[in-house]
Amino acid sequence: MEMEYRRLGNSGLKVSALSYGSWVTFSAQLDVSRAKEAMAVAYDYGVNFFDNAEVYANGESERIMGEVLKELGWPRDSYIVSSKVFWGSVRDPRPTQAGLSRKHVTEACHQALQRLQLDYLDLYFCHRPDYDTPIEETVRAMTDLIRQGKVLYWGTSQWSARQLTEAYEIAYRHHLQPPTMEQPQYNMFYRELVEVEYEPLYRQYGMGTTIWSPLASGFLTGKYNEGIPEGSRVTLEGYDWLRRRLESEEGRLQLQKVRELTALAEELGTNTARLAIAWTLKNPNVSTCITGASRTDQIHDNMKALEVVELLDDEVMARIEAILDNKPAGPTSNL
Question: DSSP 3-state assignment of 49?
C-alpha cells in the first residue's frame, strides 16, 4: 500500500496521513530495542511524523525516541518530530516547571531537544491551555523559538476555538507567528471539537490537525467486545479511569455500537480498528491521524487502514452514521 501525504493545514509541510505516537507505549511497554523496531516498521511504511511530549513517562518517552533516532540514523530531513509543553517532565513540578509561561515554554523546548538529541523540533504543541498565562505571552515565546530556529511550526492541543482565535488574532496584529496546527482527540465517539467547533478555523486560518485517539483508547478495536483481555491497556497501572469508563453505562452503550461496527467491518473484509482509523481519514480537515502500537503486528494492521478509506463510500458512511447515531449538531457560535 502507498502512504498518502497531506498538507499540515495551509503550511507547505507534508505529513503522512498515518503517523506514530509514543504515548502510553514508550517506557511503559517499549524499551529502546522494541521502540526502534516499531519506529523502523512505521518509517518503512512511509510514516514521517513521530509524536511525543515532555510529560510522556516524565520525559523518558523522549529519551527513548532520541536514542532510537540516533541508532537508526535516518536523514534528518526525512522525518518530523514533535514535543508538547504544559505539564512538565518531572513529577510534582514546581510552578516554573509547568504551564505556558515564556520561561517554561523556552526551557521545555531546550530540554526536549536534549532528550531527543535533535537540533530543532519540527512541531511544538501547547499541550493544554494555560489559564494563568496570557495567550500573547505564549504566542511571543513560540515566535521567538521559531525565529531562533529551534522550532519550525507551533500549535496547540485541546484548545477551544475561542482560545485559538485569540492566538491567531494576536499573531496577526503583532506580526508574530500564528499556530499552524491543533492536536485534538477525534474518533467515532468524540466528534464535536473537530467537526463543529473548529470548522470556522479551517476556513478562516487554514488550521491543520494532528488528531489523536482514533481508536478511543482501544474501544474501537473491538477487543473489548467480549470482555477485558489480559495485557490490554485497561489492565495497566494508572488506567483505572479507562476501566471505569468501560464499565459505565455510556461505555456499555458504546460497546454495543462497536459490536455493530465490527459486523460491518467484517462485511467489508476488514476489522474494526482499520475501519475506525479509515473513518477519521475521510474527514478532509484531518491532516494526520496519530496511531499508537506496542507491537509491530499492530502497526502492520493499522497501516492497512489506508486501503479501507476507498471502501467508505457514501452508502457505507451513512450506515456508520446510523450505527453511531451521534452526529454533532452545529455549527456552534462560540467564537
Answer: strand
For residues 296 and 303, the answer to whether their CB atoms sit within 8 Å is no
Show the cell assigned to 36. Answer: 526502534
- Segments making up each domain of the chain, as ranges: 5-216+280-295
The whole-angstrom separation of Cα 210 and Cα 286 is: 7
Give the whole-angstrom CA distance, residue 294 versus residue 59: 18
Extract the C-alpha cell encoding 70.
Answer: 540516533
So which residues are the catalytic ones? 56
What does the pLDDT look like over 140-193, one tens digit per residue?
999 999 999 999 999 999 999 999 999 999 999 999 999 999 999 999 999 999
Percent helix, strand, coil in the chain (nearest 5)?
50, 15, 40
User: Amino acid letter at 328?
Assistant: P
Q: How far apart are CA 113 and CA 97, in angstroms?
A: 16
Q: Residue 5: exposed, middle, or buried by beta-carbon count in 10 A (0-12, 13-18, 19+)?
A: middle
Long-range contacts, stretch 314-321, CB < 8 angstroms, 24+ apart: 316/264, 316/268, 317/279, 317/282, 319/264, 320/188, 320/261, 320/264, 320/275, 320/279
Biggest CA pair distance of the chain: 56
Query: At 182, phi and psi to the nearest 5?
Result: -125, 145
For residue 130, the SS3 value is coil
DSSP 206-226: --EEEEB-TTGGGGGGTTTTT
pTM of the shown model: 0.94
In tens, the pLDDT along 99-154 reads 999 999 999 999 999 999 999 999 999 999 999 999 999 999 999 999 999 999 99
Q: Which three cell numbers stand for residue 82?
A: 514533535
- 5-216+280-295 CATH choice from 2.60.120.200, 3.20.20.100, 1.10.1670.10, 3.40.50.300: 3.20.20.100
Q: What is the DSSP letter of 328?
A: P
C-alpha to C-alpha distance for 20 and 16, rounded to whole angstroms: 10
What's the gap between Cα 25 and its chain centre? 14
* Block residue for cell numbers 478532509: 284
* Burial of residue 166 (number of CB atoms within 10 Å: 0-12, 13-18, 19+): middle
